Amino acid sequence: MRSLPCRPPRKEHDAEAFICHNKNPSAFASNNFGETKRACSFVRKLSKAGATNITVKNVMPEPEAGGPYADTLVVTVPDRKASRLLPLLLESHVDAVRAKRVPGGMRFSLWWD
């Protein structure tokens, strides 16, 4: 009998797939966004503003709610489009932001309580 390699759990998931197709009615930062559809709309606005990669972190299983839950987004944006994110971040009432320079742009870790 062959054993399968043990893989560590994924730390980040594609945000649009995780949020917009989640059966949990409040799948992301529910204290801020409430219903999943509002969080999905926010992720799509980030994409339209120029974000090149958006993932979710801090995923918690919530089978009783119909699907997993998360409270953190990681957003990568090219330098030339980083200023477009500021109005969206202010609109979203983000509780904590961590910014890190990456080649060709910035990576923002966004957290809501």
What does this structure look like?
By secondary structure, this protein is an alpha+beta fold. The protein has one domain. The protein has four helices and five strands. The protein has helices spanning 15-20, 30-33, 36-48, 85-92; strands at 13-14, 53-57, 72-78, 96-102, 105-111. A five-stranded antiparallel beta sheet has the order 1-2-3-5-4. β4 and β5 (105-111) form a beta hairpin. The longest helix has 13 residues, at 36-48. It is globular. Residues 1-8 have low confidence and may be disordered.
Helix/strand-derived category reads: alpha+beta
Query: How would you sum up the global shape?
Result: globular
Helix content: 25-40%
Strand content: 15-25%
Biggest pleated sheet = 5 strands, antiparallel
Rg computed from alpha carbons, rounded to a whole number of angstroms: 15 Å
So how many helices?
A: 4
Number of domain modules: 1
Distance between the termini: 46 Å
Descriptive keywords:
113 residues; alpha+beta; 5-stranded antiparallel beta sheet; 4 helices; globular; disordered N terminus
Would you kindly provide a brief summary of this structure?
The chain is an alpha+beta fold. It has helices spanning 15-20, 30-33, 36-48, 85-92, and strands spanning 13-14, 53-57, 72-78, 96-102, 105-111. It has a 5-stranded antiparallel sheet.
